[in-house]
Amino acid sequence: MSRWTQAFADTTQTHSEATQSQFSPNQAASSSTAPYYYVLDEPKILGDHTRHALESLLIEHDRLTGQQFIIAIFQSSQGKNTADWTHQLFNQWKMAEHGQGDGILLTVFWNERKTQMEIGYGLDSVMTGPKIQETLSQYIIPELNNNQPAHALIAGVRHVLEILDSPLLESGKAAEILQTDGIDPKLTRVPSASTTKVWYYFFISGIIFFVLAISQILSREAHFTRDGWFRVSPWYWNKEFLSTHRRLSYDSSEIGGTSGHW
Amino acid sequence: MDIGKNIKIKSPILSAIWDAERDSTGEIRVHLSKRWFEPDPFARALHLFTRFGMSKTSHRNAILIYVNLRKRRFAIIGDAGIHHAVGQNFWESLSRQLRENLLSTHSEKAIALTIQSIGKVLKEHFPTAKSEAV
Questions:
Q1: Residue A27: which residues within 8 A CB-CB, separation 6 or more?
Q2: Chain B interface test: which of A217, A229, A239 (most B C-beta within 10 Å)
């Protein structure tokens, strides 16, 4: 199965006239108004609770801040360029005219495995390119790749609300809304695949180090001389090795000896 | 040289070393190991030989017996002086003797018996001035 990818729209184009494209005959594209409850789920990939929770969060956030955040999930872009389509939708739904141009449109194209975010000019300074990339690449796409669209969108919305400094978070209202719909409010930061990989390698390295340490400890050595015998600790060896390493060069061509086993 | 905690326990190896070195200028040491990974015991023995400064004896007659009890492998190293005196055949016969002893008896006792053989050679080739006078 191919991986999810992200694409960006140039936010400076939000003021341009919407081009007359031939929309496919699906519900959202033919509608000139944004989804009433701010979440459009055409392929029905979200459960009712998740959709309701997202709707509540986004509507409440708009009510408190005037910032409109819409999520639109489509089954397919039907061959259209997903970035263009998102941009056109943004303009068609007049999201640039909402409030102070504080609109965010997050589109997900399920068949093409692409996700897109369009930002209104009013949020340019807050939802910068790196922030958008961070939201998509660390919060949304990893969970989409894990086939967890609900987690992806909850985590993505949560992160955007953090960036926007939404009063919902500070007041705890966001957690309440999520809990009301049976969603764990701690489902916030979703570790990205790269972070998970780092922890995975760190864990494996820890196991290997532990095994080596135990084998070192168990590999005790004893040295006998005329003065007695001494148990030599592994860390003593390492310290001595480091300090005497340069003096270990010795011409062993004249020595004798042998080895064997029993 | 502080290389660890000095534990004075009676051991056949210590007794054998004491007896072997008593009337000779040679030095005998034994190193017991339980390492899991030991591809070359001879190389390890040589490393230890140098590390413990056994190559710095005046007559170059130090001998190190290295035994890995976990891998059941051993090595015997003799410095230039003793090697020149006894030749490689001596080490080979000593190796056979040690192997037979390890197969037939407890490892400490087996090593002690080998040390006794070394002691005889050391007394013969590197006696102390006192033992010579006697």
A1: A40, A42
A2: A229
CA distance A110 to chain B (A): 54
| B81-129 pLDDT per residue, tens | 999 999 999 999 999 999 999 999 889 999 999 999 999 999 999 988 7
* Partner residues linked to A114 by β-bridges: A5, A109
Q: Which of A221, A224, A258 sits opposite B92 (nearest CB)?
A: A258
More confident: A101 or B61:
B61
Q: Tell me what pLDDT residue A5 has.
A: 75
All residues at 6 or more sequence positions from B115 whose CB lies less than 8 Å from its CB, including other chains:
B13, B16, B17, B20, B28, B30, B65
How many Å lie between the alpha carbon of A140 and the closest alpha carbon of chain B? 47
Burial of A212 (0-12, 13-18, 19+ CB in 10 A): exposed
Lowest model confidence (mean pLDDT) among A62-76, A90-104, B1-15, B59-73: B1-15
| Contact residues of A toward B, CB < 8 A | 215, 218-233, 236, 240-241, 244, 248, 250, 252, 254-262
DSSP states of A83-119: HHHHHHHHHHTTGGGSTTT-EEEEEEETTTTEEEEEE
What pLDDT sits at residue A73? 93
- Measure Cα distances from B12 to B24, B103, B107 in Å: 19, 17, 10
Does B32 sit within 8 Å of A222, measured CB to CB? yes
A163: helix, coil or strand? helix
The residue count for chain A: 262
> What is the distance, to the nearest Å, from the Cα of residue A29 to the centroid of all Cα atoms in its chain?
29
Instruction: Give A68-99 pLDDT, tens digit per residue.
Output: 999 999 999 888 888 888 998 998 888 877 77
C-alpha Rg value of chain A to the nearest Å: 30
Low-confidence ranges of chain A (pLDDT < 70): 1-2, 6-32, 185-195, 219, 233-253
Residue among A11, A56, A46 nearest A147 (CA): A46
Query: Hey, which residues does A112 pair with through a beta bridge?
Result: none
Q: Which residues on neighbouring strands pair with residue A115, listed in sequence order?
A: A6, A108
